[in-house]
């Protein structure tokens, strides 16, 4: 079941420049300033106090920060989590500071994209069954939709199992619904797509089918990794759960960049992952 809820939402977003989003070879020297200009790299939207606070909440077993993953606290400290964020972002974090910006190096993004790109090509060449799902349906909408089209055009099968699943939580006056548009799965309240860290929507997806590959973020990615499914995920600097999972050997590709920027500006990420 596709949904006008997601499609209508996407139609209201700033629309992308088709020429910029066309898969093509692009020199790193062009992509680096584009990532900075779009604020995907550079000073992150989330400042240091938020990054440190979320890392501590993860260590305190806050389920909102665990993304459906278990055992993330085993053998790791706050310093260890910050080390992982620092390495993935490609820029130092001042351990003495408590406020201020956290930087993301554009080269770290491009290196992560270069590492993950062959796996996406493989999915196309093998005709693999791929699930794309986002808990960040505003900023990342165009990126996922373009991935869906590119994968399908290249021979992969983008599937949307579990769509239509519906449930109600206590103290809420609406249902949660798993819906999709353009091959991209999101959680909605029946009226709007919703930002979510929770794994519950992905649980419904995986109860319905088991894909060869998942491309996701937040709890959609965490639940897939927990289920042992190969996953390429996106994480912001204040969402360390997926980085800890990678450090534990549970997943390989985690792309770290700001996930809260205008959706039309993510074209350098798309091109870096899909350019011939």
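Sequence proposed for the structure above (276 residues):
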């Amino acid at each position: 079941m596709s949904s006008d809820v997601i499609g209508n939402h996407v139609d209201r977003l700033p629309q992308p420049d088709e020429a910029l989003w066309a898969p093509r070879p692009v020199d790193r020297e062009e992509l680096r300033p584009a990532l900075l200009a779009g604020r995907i790299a550079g000073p992150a939207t989330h400042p240091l106090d938020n990054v440190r606070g979320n890392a501590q909440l993860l260590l305190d077993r806050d389920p909102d920060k665990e993304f459906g993953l278990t055992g993330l606290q085993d053998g790791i400290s706050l310093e260890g989590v910050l080390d992982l964020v620092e390495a993935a972002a490609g820029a130092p974090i001042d351990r003495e500071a408590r406020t201020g910006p956290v930087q993301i190096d554009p080269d770290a993004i491009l290196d992560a994209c270069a590492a993950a790109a062959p796996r996406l090509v493989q999915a196309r060449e093998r005709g693999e069954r791929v699930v794309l799902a986002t808990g960040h349906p505003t900023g990342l909408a165009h990126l996922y939709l373009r991935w869906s089209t590119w994968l399908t055009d290249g021979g992969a099968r983008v599937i949307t199992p579990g769509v239509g699943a519906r449930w109600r939580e206590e103290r809420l006056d609406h249902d949660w619904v798993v819906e999709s548009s353009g091959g991209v799965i999101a959680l909605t309240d029946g009226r709007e797509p919703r930002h979510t860290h929770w794994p519950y929507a992905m649980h419904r997806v995986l109860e319905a089918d088991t894909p060869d590959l998942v491309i996701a973020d937040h709890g959609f990615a965490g639940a897939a990794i927990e289920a042992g499914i190969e996953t390429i995920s996106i994480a912001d600097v204040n969402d360390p759960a997926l980085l800890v999972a990678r450090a534990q050997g549970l997943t390989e590709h985690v792309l770290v960049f700001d996930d809260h920027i205008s959706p039309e500006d993510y074209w350098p990420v798309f091109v870096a992952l899909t350019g011939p």
